[in-house]
Structure formats: structure tokens, C-alpha cells
DNA sequence: TAACATATCCCCACTTTTGGGGATAAGAAT
DNA sequence: ATTCTTATCCCCAAAAGTGGGGATATGTTA
């Protein structure tokens, strides 16, 4: 059975050349070709593609929004983005929205067929430079959480108490959970407030989660 | 000036064959070759590599921990991981720890030189299947935050109130901030509790942050 | 040994939050 | 025209949290 492919691109010439390119491959067929994404969900419901080629820049609704919609309604569809520039944020947004891979338009002739095959095989084709950007984004939250964890110097017990609080337990419940008295919980909380420079449970919870302390 | 490369791999044969492979390229030179990572930071301080090839599985300390240490002490070093298997979690951990790229040991002969070049050029070489796994990990938090934001159907006003609470304001302060009465704040909070299925400020704050509502 | 950190517990008075009602007005949806 | 949603406000009594004091015991460090 051949791979069913749908194309979304506002440039008719590009759609045609992609269609031509794909038609040279016996294992693939173009089942739809659309110049806008306004009805992308319905379009895909009709032509039932396995893989969607989506231009990142589309008139009306952006390709990124379209990805989000498509993935929501038809989560099994694999989406391959195409773009002219390697634009950090747009690429990242597209991937977050549910795109599985990436090709530059310059490379279409050389890499499109391979990219489609890789996508179908469970991979995510993307240029190394895009991969680096994705990785960079991924590493930011890790850096925050790992570097600041010990800045506050909470003791193990204080972390336990804080974790309980973050999980929604009241002082009483924390006391029961940790087999200590209500007053001991209070003592720990007081220390936590000092160390975190906060003055209420809500602030402590917010800081604990945002800074990755728990 | 040629690229300075250090190798960390517990298998001597592999180190030798990598050295041989690299020596065929005039733009690269192996400046260090080590069978363990116990002194990796000192080793790298001495031989000053631009790029480190690190086996993900090392005796004593794992390659992942080594990556973390190296990146902490020598953040400019680019690290290329090598592994036998495409192990989701380990790969992901290595990348979070600071690795910039990835090659399978099977592919060394074909891809190592290219991978090193790409790494140095600012890219992140990795197989499409690894890229997919990285993307998958990346999409998890996004999916939670983007898909559940509207699930709770908080009104704009309720979101404002919740945001204030998350920022550590008390009911009184929220009232002052939003120019409404204390009782109105309470009404909103009650509604928020219902919609979020929580019963305390701390739970609301935790849920709001974790689910990306604010 | 003395100073320090951790973990445990206690009291009082005060503030804040919570649960349970209820009410009004403006605007959107049926 | 009526229902629904949103946003606003009110009261009371109970529960929970906060601030500012203490105290004791067990270790570790200097």
C-alpha cells in the first residue's frame, strides 16, 4: 500500500513540483493539494493522508496554527513542515504544535522523498542546525531547575514538607503524612519562608514549582 | 587551525579506530584519548579539546554525568555522544545534560566525520529516530499546557484573579489590585476552585503553574 | 568543648482563608 | 421573553495559616 500524502502550500508551482517529485516514487501518492489551510481538517478528513506537507507560512491561518488544529483532530497524521528560512521560533512553535519533521525548501529536490520515508519510519528529519535549536530550547528549563535547586539550601526534611504542601496538603495533613506534630510542620514552614524569602504558602508553592525545587 | 578532539570510551579498540578515522582528515586531530571519565574535567583542561566524543556508557561514572560535569566547568566544549542502542531516556538525559549531538556506533565509519563537522558548524547531528524522541519529550509539557489551558474554562476575570494569587497576593491585595471588593475576589476564587477541582489556594496555585494556566 | 545545624515540640494572639448560604445587574444565547 | 453566563457584592461561623516568641535533643563542625 502506498503512502498517502497531502500538500498544503499557497504557491501553486511548488505544489505542482512537489506532486511531480512524489509521483516519481511508486510507494507514494498525492491524495490532496491545497492552496490554503482554512479547511485543513475537513480536507484531511476527505482525502485521508498518512502524511501532510505543510508550508510554515500560509495565508489566513498560519501553518503552525493549522498543525495544531490537525494534530488535535487527527492525531495520527504525521506532519512535515517546509520553510524557506531556518527561523528559530517558528520552527520551534511548529514542532511544539505537533509537527514531526522539517525540510528546507531549497533541499526539496534532494531530501523530500528521504524525509517522507524517515517520517513514516518513525523518525523526525530535520537539519542539524534546527536540531540544535530544538535542543537549546529543551535545555533552558533544565538549566534553571538544576542550577537553582540548591541555592536555597533547604534541608531534606524541609523539602519533604514543601513537597507535601505543593501537593495540596494542609499543615495537619503534612503532620500526619510525616508522623510529626502540627507544630513541627509549622517550624519547618517558617524556615522555608525564611530561606525562600516568601511570606505565604502560595508564594512558597509558586516559587517551589517555578524554580524546580520540588 | 585544526579541530581538537578528545575521545572518552572504555573500549580501547574503539578509541583506536576512531583515532585512525579522524587522522585521515587533515582538519582534525585527536588531542586526548581516555578509557574512563573519572578525571574528565582535568583531562579536558589539559588537552583543551574543541569537541569531545563521549560514550554514553562508561565505567564508574556514566557518560551522562560526565557531560553534566564537563558542561558545567567547560561550557564551550561541544559534546558528541556515541551509543550502541537508541535508548530513549539515556539519549534524552544526555542531551539535557548538555550534549549537542548524537551518533550511533554502527554509523561511526560513515557518519562520524560529518557529525563532527556539523557539530562544529553549529548543528546537532542526530538520527531522525533520536530527533523524534527528543521532539516527543519536548511536546509533552507543551501538550499539557496548550491543550488544557481552556479545558477548565476559566473566564478572563477568573484568570486575572488566579494570576494575582499565583504571584503571591492575598485576597485583600487582589481586591486592591483589581479595584473590586474582597467579597468579589472570594466569589471568583470559589468559582476557580470548582472549575479546577481544588479546595485550597495552594492546590490552585500548583495546578495553575503545572498546567500552564497562568 | 563550644558553636552550629537539624529536627522535634509548645503557646498565644492575630489574620487569612474557607464553606455555606444569598443577591443584583448587564449582556449573550435560546 | 427567558435562561445562562459573567461580574459584582454581602454575611456568618469555622478552619487554617502567620508572627513572634520559646524549648529540647542529636549530631557535626571548628
How would you explain this protein's 3D organization?
2 copies of one chain form a homodimer. Chain A has 214 residues and is of the alpha/beta class. Chain A has 2 domains: 138 residues, Rossmann fold; 62 residues, Orthogonal Bundle (Arc Repressor Mutant, subunit A). Helices cover 56% and strands 13% of the residues of chain A. The first copy, chain A, contains 10 helices and 5 strands; from the N terminus they run E-H-E-H-E-H-E-H-E-H-H-H-H-H-H. In chain A, strands 2-1-3-4-5 form a 5-stranded parallel β-sheet, with helices on both faces. In chain A, helix 3 links the parallel strand 3 and strand 4. In chain A, helix 3 runs parallel beside helix 4, helix 7 crosses helix 10 and helix 8 crosses helix 9. The radius of gyration of chain A is 25 Å and the shape is elongated. The two termini of chain A are 49 Å apart. In chain A, 38% of the residues are buried. About 3% of the residues of chain A have low confidence. At the A-B interface, helix 6 and helix 10 of A face helix 6 and helix 10 of B. Chain A binds a DNA duplex (30 and 30 nucleotides) through helix 7 and helix 9.
Q: Short summary of the structure?
A:
The structure is a homodimer of 214-residue chains. Chain A has 214 residues and is α/β, with parallel strands linked by helices.
Furnish the topology, listing elements before pairings.
The structure is a homodimer of 214-residue chains.
Chain A: E1 3-8, H1 12-23, E2 28-34, H2 40-47, E3 51-55, H3 63-73, E4 78-83, H4 88-97, E5 101-104, H5 108-120, H6 128-148, H7 156-166, H8 171-178, H9 182-196, H10 201-210
Parallel strand pairs in A: 1-2, 1-3, 3-4, 4-5
Helix pairs in contact in A: 3-4, 7-8, 7-9, 7-10, 8-9
Chain A binds a DNA duplex (30 and 30 nucleotides) through α7 and α9.
Amino acid at each position: 500500500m502506498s503512502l498517502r500524502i497531502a500538500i498544503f502550500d499557497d504557491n501553486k508551482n511548488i505544489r505542482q513540483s512537489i506532486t511531480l517529485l512524489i509521483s516519481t516514487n511508486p510507494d507514494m501518492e498525492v491524495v490532496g493539494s491545497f492552496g490554503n489551510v482554512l479547511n485543513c481538517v475537513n480536507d484531511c478528513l476527505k482525502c485521508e493522508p498518512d502524511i501532510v506537507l505543510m508550508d510554515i507560512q500560509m495565508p489566513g491561518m498560519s501553518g503552525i496554527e493549522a498543525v495544531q488544529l490537525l494534530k488535535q483532530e487527527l492525531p495520527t497524521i504525521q506532519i512535515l513542515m517546509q520553510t524557506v528560512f531556518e527561523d528559530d521560533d517558528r520552527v520551534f512553535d511548529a514542532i511544539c504544535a505537533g509537527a514531526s519533521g522539517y525540510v528546507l525548501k531549497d533541499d526539496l529536490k534532494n531530501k523530500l522523498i528521504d524525509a517522507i520515508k524517515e517520517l513514516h519510519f518513525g523518525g523526525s528529519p530535520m537539519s542539524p542546525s534546527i536540531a540544535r535549536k530544538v535542543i537549546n530550547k529543551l535545555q533552558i528549563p533544565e538549566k534553571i531547575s538544576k542550577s537553582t535547586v540548591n541555592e536555597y539550601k533547604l534541608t531534606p526534611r524541609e523539602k519533604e514538607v514543601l513537597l507535601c504542601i505543593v501537593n495540596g496538603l494542609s499543615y495537619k495533613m503534612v503532620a500526619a503524612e510525616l508522623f510529626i506534630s502540627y507544630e513541627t510542620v509549622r517550624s519547618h514552614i517558617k524556615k522555608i519562608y525564611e530561606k525562600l524569602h516568601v511570606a505565604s504558602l502560595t508564594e512558597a508553592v509558586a516559587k517551589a514549582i517555578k524554580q524546580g525545587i520540588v
